[in-house]
């Protein structure tokens, strides 16, 4: 498995497949790169890259408090170490916050911004409760949280076990801090600064993030939106075929 050393000498593990336009995937709290199990198939069209953020999966722990901005800077360093001048950046759930932060702080590094279940800030009661529940379970019963997350992402037992075993590698402190900063983070004031091609994917009524799409529709008139009816939030695993098709068509035509 390849590794990259950041400027603070920490090692980030990642998986890489395929050739062509680089697409970098950013995972939500705790899950690590394995949540993009099915996006490896995009290697038929792109150079797909799946890093574990610090404190997740097989990567080293950070020596400081982590935050959305910390992880955004980490991904930029990661790109520099791999000599990637520009890439399509795919952010899933809270990973979309990191992708967006890179998008308005380092737009030169982002050729396309692809976001699944994105929100610029947690402005719904459901979203706040989910983040707080995650933080609570991390302190009281992290095993239960891992089981809930894995089960919500797939009915495939083998994949559930893979997701769970990878989550067990995460540093619980970093996981908690990722949740915590996602809950208080906001880039609402930065949305009009996005000029790169943007693709938003949401689930249907069961996707708590869909109500946030209005912020993007108002501020990013050039963006494309897709809503997969009768689906929940977990599009990369539960609707991976449609998700991959949307990514392929969007990146290749913009």
From TrEMBL:
It holds the Pfam family Abhydrolase_1. Keywords: Hydrolase. One of its GO terms (molecular function) is hydrolase activity. Residues 22-130 form the AB hydrolase-1 domain. Transmembrane segments: none annotated. It comes from the Bacteria. InterPro entries: AB_hydrolase_1 (IPR000073), AB_hydrolase_fold (IPR029058), AB_hydrolase_sf (IPR050266). This is Alpha/beta hydrolase fold. It comes from Bacillus mojavensis.
